[in-house]
Amino acid sequence: MRNRCCRDERGQVLLWVALALPILILFTAMAVDMGVIYMTKARLANATDAAVLTGVKTVAYWTTRDGTVAAGQADAQHYASQMFAGNFGSSAPTLTYTWCPGDASCPANTTSLKLHASTVVNTTFMSYLPRWAQWTVGAASQATRGNLVMTLILDRSGSMTTDGGEAALKNAVPAFIADFSEGTDHVSMISFASDATINVPMTQTFTTAINNAVTTTMPWGGGTFGTGAGTYGTNFDATHGPPLSMADSQNNSVTFPAGSSEEKVVVYFTDGLMNTIQETFAACSGLPNKGFYNFGGHDAVGVTPDFLDPTNSDFNSNDYSTNFSGNASGGATGGCDGNAYNATCQNNPPYSLTARCLGVTGFTSQIDGTFKSFSGNQAAVTKEAQYRAIYTANQMRSESPVPTYVFVIGLSSAMNDQCTEAFLATLANDPDGSQYSCPTAPAVYNSSLPQGEFLPVVNCPSSTCTQSLNQAFQKIAARILLRLSQ
């Protein structure tokens, strides 16, 4: 008998190879073809994300330029397709766009763009099975542009006419406003010098009104009343009060239905350090607006603050004591006390002979609750203005359910002062504020509050001032639009 273990088994390897080959091809197909399919789908997804973000970020600009929503959407869609091609490649997938407003299913007051993209992938190994020779791969993305509520706060003080700020601002603001969408966004504008004014109340038709205010009707000249009400909250002149507080009031005047996407923003522009505050004194007589007084107006620290009409924006008319004619007892002309730049009237603050605060010799600081004399104490007023501004900005950032993002632009060579820059970085809650080395008042960043940005534009006046200010405004516009587009 022959031993079984020794029988001839030649040829069985070929049989096993024949049986295993389809399985090997299948695994190869899974490793190669499915990998190609997966990578194509990932590229589609990235490209559709980039395209819809481009569309919703640019549609406001194109709508404003073209004059109609449909034309603006067409141009924005063109650039969205270019962005898609730049991310996906030169092949031509099928792209289907859906815009809001425009589609019948769109919710009210919504700007959004949905893109579905599909393409065919030709397989290599899987093509041995005809039904798997081609795969159709698709991806869809949607970006929704939130409702913007924004207030511009613009410095129109006297130094703006000499440091290049006036000309630069007249160029930069119209370009900035063009980035936003009328009919969707809400925008207002406030300006300040010795007083503050609501130039354009909150509106959805803001472009022409703001452009006219900045380029034509806004008066230039005066001090730097750029602060907030601080701990006084709503106790301020509603039409000529601290600009940060009035901006908060303007932003909070707009409400949206529950669940709406909303962004609140303040863009604050200045060419100097604020040096004026507003108080209401019970002892004041003959004053409008229930005894509100503005006082300060000096950059020098050792002088007595001037007293300013809170309703008068003209530097040369009825705000400074140079317009007073004598004191109450018939003394010298110039200021009430005979000194044209020390605006006290028998030790009482006036802004005219009949409107003065009898017996008022100082104010109570919000910083520590102590009494601060007016006499020779401009430094206390300046410090108080900064405190009230930062306090107000932090309150705005803490509001619920929609906090406010504060962006700050500082213009002119005054921004080379490290303490001025540190203060403005704190006002914006800029995390990079620590780069400004101010030993007496370093910049403070609160990571629990919305992060803004401070942009110094130091080359003013110069031939590049306008260009640099435009770049600063456009950087802020890009950040706002990126946050709006989700």
Question: Could you characterize what this model shows?
Answer:
By secondary structure, the protein is α/β, with parallel strands linked by helices. It folds into two domains: 128 residues, no CATH class; 230 residues, 3-Layer(aba) Sandwich (Rossmann fold). A six-stranded mixed β-sheet has the order 6-5-4-7-15-16, sandwiched between helices. Helix 1 packs antiparallel against helix 2. The chain starts with 11 loop residues before the first helix and ends with a helix.
Task: Give the key terms.
six-stranded mixed β-sheet; 2 domains; Rossmann fold; 486 residues; alpha/beta
SS summary, helix count? 8
Quick one: CATH superfamily of the largest domain?
A: von Willebrand factor, type A domain
Number of strands: 16
| CATH class categorisation of the largest domain | Alpha Beta
CATH architecture of the largest domain: 3-Layer(aba) Sandwich
Here the CATH topology of the largest domain equals Rossmann fold
Helix percent reads 25-40%
From the spread of the alpha carbons, the general shape counts as: elongated
Beta fraction:
15-25%
Low-confidence stretches: 314-335, 337-343
Structural class: alpha/beta
Order of SSEs: HHEEEEHEEHHEEEEEEEEHEHEH
Q: What is shown here, in short?
A:
The protein is of the alpha/beta class. Helix content is 33%, strand content 21%.
SSE blueprint:
Blueprint: H1 12-66, H2 69-88, E1 94-100, E2 111-122, E3 134-145, E4 147-155, H3 165-177, E5 186-192, E6 196-203, H4 207-217, H5 243-251, E7 262-270, E8 276-280, E9 284-285, E10 292-296, E11 306-308, E12 356-357, E13 362-364, E14 371-373, H6 378-397, E15 404-411, H7 418-428, E16 453-457, H8 465-484
Parallel strand pairs: 4-5, 4-7, 7-15, 15-16
Antiparallel strand pairs: 1-2, 2-3, 5-6, 8-10, 9-12, 10-11, 13-14
